[in-house]
Amino acid sequence: MQRIQGLTIHPGFAYGPVKQLVERTNVAYLAIHSNQLEVLKRALSVSQQQILKEIEQLKNRYPESVLTIFESHLLMVSDPFLVDRAIAYIQQGNNAYVAYQMAAKEVILLFEQLDNSYIRNRVVDIEDITDRVLSAIVDSEYAYELAFSEPHIVLMNKLKPSIIAQANRAQVIGVIAKEGTLDQHAATLLHNFDIPCVVVGRAFDKIKSTDYIFINKQDSSIYINPEISFVEEVLTPGGATNEL
Question: In the CATH scheme, what is the homologous superfamily, with its name and number, of domain 36-137?
């Protein structure tokens, strides 16, 4: 058994097998299309429709604080600076995929250089939006399958709101991330969905796809492959068995 202490994003107990979410690899879009401006325009429209659909699905289940996250994503998709930079790159001869990717990197760099933690923590939202638009450009659905045959603890490199929003508490009983902070939008979602989450930094790479993890809210730690007797001992005194 190995113990790793981390930053608790949302407290709770959880015990189960892990599921690693594999980050998509961005491969340059090489489709032969004569009008890359139209390709970009269509991708932006598709992305906006996806977000509007997600807002509709969430609005009767969660408070305004959750909906506001995706309303901000809706504005980000059509942000004039980002779109104008992407158009400029297309006019320089780049395809829509590369152009939007380059424009997004410019915006992210600007945010990362600002002396404001709140603004810097919006970078993951921009990355989330970028992934969505790039997926639309190549006609690939921007979605992760989070429906499992049994409850899992999900592993992800970054806490991206669009991924967290797809989590069903009955099947995603916990989240462990390599990067994340308490004031990111994903933290709001995890709180409202009541999904335990711990950020563990570099120790994230110690977790294997075959591991079982115990998230222990008592000491803000995760335990890799603990004995079930240890899990039961922790849970029984506080009567927390039903929280699994």
Answer: PtsI, HPr-binding domain (1.10.274.10)
